[in-house]
Amino acid sequence: MTIGTTAALEASARRLFPGLRLNQVWAELLLERAQRNLIKHQITARRFESRYCQSFETFRQWVLDSEPASEVEQDYFDWELAVTGISDMEDEIRRLRTLSAQP
After folding, report:
1. What 8-state DSSP symbol labels residue 55?
2. Which pLDDT value is given to residue 103?
3. Which of 4, 82, 88, 99 is the most exposed place for a label (fewest CB within 10 A)?
């Protein structure tokens, strides 16, 4: 990044986030991204809950106890990714809220 680009980004940050220091701006921007990712994972998890009419844990146990079709197995992996993503994003959001609140 050139000095001109850096200066332009800093000027935009000051206009869009008045009163915040640059590290707080970063934290706010990352927080917004983490919240969008959380919503995306929650929507995916709800879609699978609706499709299979059960929780992930119940579905997981059923998959582990059976020999599911490849499509169902792929749904398991996608659903597990969504559940893991929800947990990761909730942790990330907590951490970023702490950072953005620091003076």
Report:
1. -
2. 65
3. 4
